[in-house]
Amino acid sequence: MDSTSGAPAFAKGFERIRVLWPDHLGLARGKYVPAGMAARGARHCTGTWALGFDRQMTPGTPGSFFFEGLPDMDARFSPGTVRPGWEGPGTGVVVADLEREGQPVAVSPRGALRRAIADWEALGYRPEVGIELEAYLMEPDGAGGWQPISTPGAFVYGTGPSVDPHGIVGELWDAADRAGIAIEAINSEYDESQFEFTLAHTDALEAADRTFLFKQMARELATRHGLLWTFLGKPVNDRGGSGLHVNVSFTAPDGGNAVDDPSDPDGLSPLARRAAAGLLAHHQGLCGLVAPTVTAYRRLRPGQLAGYWANWGHDHRGATVRIPPERGAAARLEHRLADGAAPAHVAVAAVLQAARLGVVDELELGPPETGDGFEHVDATVGCPTNLGAALDALEADGALCDAVGKELVQQHLAVKRTEWDAFCAYTTDWEKRAYLPFL
């Protein structure tokens, strides 16, 4: 205990702790609690797992205890994981695990990632992850909506005021430093008002936690300027999509990088090849988890360099599993299918489990992609055409469902099928413009 304040030692210097946890929609749920009471954690209603973005609840959703009175669950955390936040020196922030009646909550995304890490560790390997995120910076359009900020002097790999007239990149970097979120690079992406954020490679749970916190921090800092960061896969019709790339490596028992093999002509170990084969074998099922919105399937199209095809290649951005040119300690597999609307913990867990299935099933990796990714492609298997088809593909992939967590997947399917049904029943503005004048 801190003898001067009566607060637990881990809370010294903070007036309050912001206890956050990732939900199934990628939202940062949580509560502020006084620092002196933070060791108790925080309670939340299990009915949260039945919610969609529109706050409608899907009755009977697994994990919600919808028909059992919507009881509480507990957000718990280790004292050593509290870090400085971005709201001021008095507020610490922490990413919590969820328990109910002393047991882990089966539908928790962070719990699913913990299980994936444990499954890899049972094979003798520690997974490490680096995340690359893309996002658009938006401003009000004057009609109640949002439009990309205007940066007529912007260009790909741009830095400075020509691409960031609000100076928000510097604010993000400073806030991330204070919160212990290591950034490797920030730059403008291909399209105007689009940016790429490369977060440092670290152990898988910390990588997902950092990504989760970074997204929340970015959106909140933008709000102070009256702006909006969106991590949707395809938020703007006339511009490119935004991805979430999961870079994966595995530390072997001897401390070496288990992806690297200097004796192999391609520099890849048998483990790396089987892991890549697993990602391709479960490509369509993965879509239902890592591309979880209607909008995602406007990005996942042929010729978009967005992870559409079940293929792999050496330093090939037209391949879903890209093998970057670095070898040795930096060797890794880059999985390019997900977008930032996916909960980071779910995306990492799903990628790790699909890769692990390739290892345990001893899958053989086929030849690399030789096409250009635009006019010519060797691959024949692509993504499902829409969210509904992707959810069907996920449910049909029993091995992936079991690996990620059967109850989590069933909860995800229940809420997302409600979302898909609502979209299908909705008459869009495009339909009104296209049909009403004539029919």
Automatic annotation (TrEMBL):
SMART domains (UniProt xref): Gln-synt_C
PROSITE patterns noted in UniProt: GS_CATALYTIC (PS51987)
UniProt cross-references to Pfam families, sorted A to Z: Gln-synt_C (PF00120)
Keywords: Ligase
Domain GS catalytic: 109-439
InterPro entries: Gln_synth/guanido_kin_cat_dom, Gln_synth_cat_dom
Protein family per UniProt: Belongs to the glutamine synthetase family.
Name of the molecule in the record: Glutamine synthetase
